[in-house]
Amino acid sequence: MLELTRSVAERARSVAGVTAQNLAIQDVIVLAFHAYIFLRVWIAPDSPDATVARRLTLALLVVTACAMVLSRGEVIRSQRARALTYRLGLFVPMVFSYFEMRVLLPALQPDLMDYRLYAIDLWLLSATPSVWLEAWNTKPVVEWLSFYYYGYFVVLIVMLIPALFLEKGRRLQELMAGALLIVTAGHFLYTIVPGAGPFATLSFDGPLHGGFWWNQVQVTVATAGAQLDIFPSLHTAFPAYFAFYAYGHRHEHPFNWAWLVLAFVAFNIIAATMFLRWHWFIDVAAGLLLAFAARRFSVVVAKREGQRGGAYDGRQPVWERL
Fold first, then answer.
1. Is pTM beyond 0.90 here?
2. Which pLDDT tens digit goes with each residue over 101-133?
3. H-helix or E-strand containing 236?
């Protein structure tokens, strides 16, 4: 029995050592994010939202940590199975981390920062764009921008899901490192700078005159939105980041033409965030800054970790091939 216990302990130490050796920078960031979110809601006042949020945050932390141990610790011997476990264990909990914000942010019982954000807009622009954009409150304009605002989710799916399973090498490392930085930094800042946006804070001359697409946006925000997730604007950060990423690879197919499409789509989505009264200008500015920082971060990290798994580097590649 004693020998069995020692054997298990030695195996655990071995797995822990291999896991620590193989962890990539993005792994550390994601684990730190899930740990922070769990600890933040754990010390929040008791409430029905806090109870649900604690369970969700613990589940996402455990799933991510287990996936890391199984893949980075090389407990799973098959490379393909290990690569699939890593992708799903890293990516899926980050997707669900957005949906947990719907109960997590209210559970923190925050003081909303809208009037402070509005004050920054007034200091920078003497107004907030949502107010002076009222002059274009016509159905064609509302529908046009609502279409692009709603299309944000399509952009996320098209840019991330195929790449996660089909892309490889430097392009995959850059794309995912930047995307993971955006989502972790964005969700972290939601807990620091909560707000509801201009539509819930200011008085406007009248409602937006939209149709089908504006209705789709409203339904989506009401049913799936985190409600207090305005600073920074991830509707700004992600499309802008994808445009920066595509421009950086503009000499490669398909980004030799796709960067123009992504830039056009990003511009419209960013305009929509303010026109549709969801975001302050400072939210958008922070989103653009985050997108730029994520692009720089992704290039540096991909260059630094690009040699992992090579002839003179025994560490596991950041993204093993499926």
1. yes
2. 999 999 998 889 999 999 999 999 999 999 999
3. helix 234-248
